[in-house]
């Protein structure tokens, strides 16, 4: 008990210090972010962009699809360009061509080597010189550069408008004509795009060869190349990671752990009678399966848009379901069904652990279910409607689609979801309270479950921190608090504690061992994970020390994965501990799969794009998508399915349970995911990385690469994996339908049979 108390103290200290540093970093980002000009003018006094247009352009881009329609500073979708890289390249080419025609009366390509070298040198000097005047809030450009900016602005106005000459390019970008029907928005959009590119190439005040985005994106024309810090801290982080892994292995090899207890002769939960509130969670899990099916369907459509940008096998689907909508639903539903599975698990296990059914608990579970269903349906429908009908910036922010990846639902829905999560924490706390009050060996685990749940409810408040006019650097700062800390942080702590608690209830691990292990694991995870959030923010207009902190601490996120294989093997052994454990075979195998995908998806693929030097070239390319698919579904998705199966086991008639359906479900999902990632996404990401390194980010995201024969072939090579994966979801659906139609039938009394016992 004394040792565990010390671990809790260390956990509290680490959390307080880490969040203090993360908050300080946020303050520094706010103070040193790229300045938003009041005006952009030429030296002749011509006004290119007026006050408020940069912010209005940001709102316009987000309402048109935002991070679902290309990306800015590398964050967003992969079919359309990264607009900051695209604008920067187009402006540099336009300016160089203007000089060539003016000075030599020839196109640049026809000039001699000396003349080209002269113009290239002048171009780098012009594009990197910072002409922002903080006193007046004005950026001043030379007349030639002002003309180049005007040329690129006309291109963007035509692209986001209805110019028929750009129809082919729109199809390649998977965007529809008339993305911004409001003339004011259409005129303001180029201001935001110019500003994002200006921030990416212009030297910071008092610096040379160092832009506000630490020289991202790679663009040789303007000397945008990796900084020395990106390389140094990448090397340091790898050394630090290897040393930490060695330390972890040494600790585990020298630490003495009690072995697993002798398992009970019979299932300890066999006679558990689900309470009314526990039974009420059944409908949550059926909604989870429905969301999985919808997410997979939208994923198929979204992937196909990478080949046919506006059609689905010739059918003009984009007229009613554009890429921005299908991808929004695909990414949003992934988070929603995983979160719903974990929330429902908490509501199910609370009375089971405490042995107490609070008054009106079932009513609370029912009310929360319909409230969450209302939020899911409402946010999806209004997001779809707002995108399709172009209902404007205010509608998009408040009730439609905010245009931010993984956090796309409108602000009203976010507020309602925040209230719903607080209500969930209240229901969970009511259910766990008797167990928290009662001294027991498991009380530390139960406390960890509740504290993680409390953080899940409280930290969703970070989705309410930005407004429609918030600086884009700060939006990214707070968005990654939500995506990284909420989804990847506290939800994982919650789920890990729940699994440990379930294993102790089954008598497969000792409660005393689990208490210490789960606190120690949380310490290791959050020590790297909290400040590791910064690895998403290397190139989003942040101070250079963000690269140092983010690189070193995100490397520590890999350290716990060094022992995942050992834990997976132990879980496999536990699945064979006694004949009755086969009842939970597929839940345990899902937990083992979580370990595998933690190593492969979060570890290998995650760290491949994690260091500053790697991310510099690969941010916003398909290697990021490979990591995202393998980690999000492989880790969090399989964890959600494992918990779903465990809970349904306890609420279902044993005769309705079918391992024959679960076996192909499990293997199809995992094999299909592996095929999808390693046959299609990883090769596509490697090819794009080569393009980014050799010519620049603009090239890696250009139609020349994205719609090359090789890339489109790799998209088609996703089909086998997608089909195998979809088969797995169908087996899960058939399994659930079998439980629904047969699960309530009363069976005659019979002796318990191994492999078919009720949990």
Automatic annotation (TrEMBL):
Gene3D superfamilies named among the record's database cross-references: Cytochrome c oxidase-like, subunit I domain
All residue ranges annotated as the Nitric oxide reductase subunit B cytochrome c-like domain in the record: 37-218
InterPro entries: Cyt_c_oxase-like_su1_sf (IPR036927), Cyt_C_Oxase_1 (IPR000883), NorB_cytochrome_c-like (IPR054309)
Top-level lineage group: Bacteria
Pfam families reported in the protein's UniProt record: COX1, NorB_cytochrome_c-like
Transmembrane segments: 230-251, 284-307, 334-355, 367-392, 412-433, 445-466, 478-504, 516-539, 545-566, 586-609, 629-648, 669-690, 723-740
Entry keywords, A to Z: Membrane, Transmembrane, Transmembrane helix
Claim: Oxidoreductase is one of the keywords in the record: no
KW Transmembrane (keyword) present: yes
PANTHER family: CYTOCHROME B SUBUNIT OF NITRIC OXIDE REDUCTASE (PTHR10422:SF38), CYTOCHROME C OXIDASE SUBUNIT 1 (PTHR10422)
Name of the protein described by the UniProt record: Nitric-oxide reductase large subunit
């Amino acid at each position: 008990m004394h040792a565990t108390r010390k671990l809790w103290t260390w956990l509290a200290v680490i959390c307080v210090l880490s969040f203090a540093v993360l908050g300080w970093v946020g303050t520094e980002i706010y103070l040193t972010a790229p300045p938003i000009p009041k005006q952009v003018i030429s030296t002749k006094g011509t006004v290119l962009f007026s006050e408020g247009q940069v912010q209005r352009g940001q709102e316009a881009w987000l309402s048109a699809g935002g991070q679902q329609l290309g990306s800015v500073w590398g964050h967003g979708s992969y079919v359309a360009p990264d607009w900051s890289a695209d604008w920067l390249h187009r402006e540099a080419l336009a300016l160089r061509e203007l000089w060539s025609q003016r000075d030599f009366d020839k196109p640049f390509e026809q000039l001699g080597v000396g003349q080209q070298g002269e113009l290239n040198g002048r171009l780098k000097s012009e594009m990197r010189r910072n002409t922002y005047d903080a006193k007046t809030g004005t950026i001043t450009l030379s007349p030639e550069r002002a003309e180049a900016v005007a040329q690129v602005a006309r291109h963007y106005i035509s692209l986001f408008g209805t110019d028929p000459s750009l129809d082919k390019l729109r199809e390649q970008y998977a965007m529809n004509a008339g993305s911004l029907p409001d003339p004011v928005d259409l005129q303001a959009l180029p201001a935001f795009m110019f500003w994002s590119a200006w921030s990416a190439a212009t030297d910071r005040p008092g610096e040379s060869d160092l832009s506000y985005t630490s020289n991202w994106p790679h663009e040789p024309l303007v000397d945008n190349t990796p900084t020395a810090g990106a390389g140094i801290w990448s090397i340091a982080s790898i050394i630090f990671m290897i040393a930490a892994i060695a330390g972890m292995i040494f600790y585990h090899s020298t630490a003495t752990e009690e072995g697993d207890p002798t398992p009970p002769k019979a299932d300890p939960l066999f006679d558990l009678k689900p309470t009314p509130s526990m039974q009420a969670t059944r409908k949550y899990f059926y909604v989870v399966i429905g969301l999985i099916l919808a997410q997979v369907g939208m994923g198929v459509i979204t992937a196909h848009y990478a080949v046919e940008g506006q059609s689905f096998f010739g059918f003009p689907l984009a007229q009613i379901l554009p890429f921005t909508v299908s991808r929004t639903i695909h990414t949003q539903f992934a988070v929603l069904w995983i979160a719903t599975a974990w929330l429902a698990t908490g509501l199910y296990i609370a009375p089971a652990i405490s042995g107490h059914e609070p008054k009106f608990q079932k009513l609370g579970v029912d009310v929360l279910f319909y409230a969450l269903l209302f939020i899911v349906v409402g946010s999806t429908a209004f997001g779809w409607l707002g995108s399709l009908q172009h209902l404007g910036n205010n509608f998009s922010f408040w009730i439609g689609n905010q245009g931010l990846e993984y956090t796309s639902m409108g602000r009203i829905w976010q507020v309602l979801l925040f209230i719903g999560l607080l209500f969930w924490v209240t229901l969970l706390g009511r259910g766990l309270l008797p167990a928290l009050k009662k001294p027991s060996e498991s009380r530390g685990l139960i406390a960890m479950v509740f504290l993680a749940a409390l953080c899940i409810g409280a930290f969703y408040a970070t989705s309410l921190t930005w407004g429609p006019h918030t600086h884009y650097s700060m939006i990214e700062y707070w968005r990654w608090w939500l995506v990284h800390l909420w989804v990847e942080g506290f939800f994982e702590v919650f789920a890990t504690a729940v699994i440990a608690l379930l294993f102790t209830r089954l008598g497969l691990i000792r409660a005393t061992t689990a208490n210490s292990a789960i606190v120690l694991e949380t310490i290791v995870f959050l020590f790297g994970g909290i400040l590791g959030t910064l690895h998403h923010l290397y190139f989003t207009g942040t101070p250079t020390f963000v690269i140092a902190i983010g690189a070193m601490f995100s490397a520590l996120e890999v350290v716990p994965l060094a022992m995942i294989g050992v834990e997976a093997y132990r879980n496999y052994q536990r699945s064979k501990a006694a004949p009755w454990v086969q009842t939970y075979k597929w839940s345990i195998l899902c937990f083992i799969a979580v370990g595998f995908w933690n190593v492969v998806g979060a570890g290998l693929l995650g760290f491949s794009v994690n260091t500053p030097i790697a991310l510099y070239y690969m941010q916003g390319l398909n290697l990021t998508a490979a990591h995202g698919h393998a980690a999000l579904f492989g880790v969090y998705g399989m964890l959600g399915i494992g918990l779903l199966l465990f809970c349904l086991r306890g609420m279902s008639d044993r005769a309705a349970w079918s391992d024959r359906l679960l076996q192909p479900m499990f293997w199809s999902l995992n094999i299909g995911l592996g095929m999808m990632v390693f046959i299609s996404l990883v090769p596509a990401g490697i090819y794009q990385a080569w393009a980014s390194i050799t010519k620049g980010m603009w090239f890696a995201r250009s139609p020349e690469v994205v719609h090359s024969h090789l890339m489109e072939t790799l998209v088609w090579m996703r089909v086998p994996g997608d089909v195998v994966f979809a088969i797995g979801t169908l087996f899960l659906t058939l399994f659930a339908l079998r439980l629904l139609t047969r699960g309530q039938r009363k069976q005659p009394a019979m002796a318990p049979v191994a492999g078919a016992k009720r949990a």
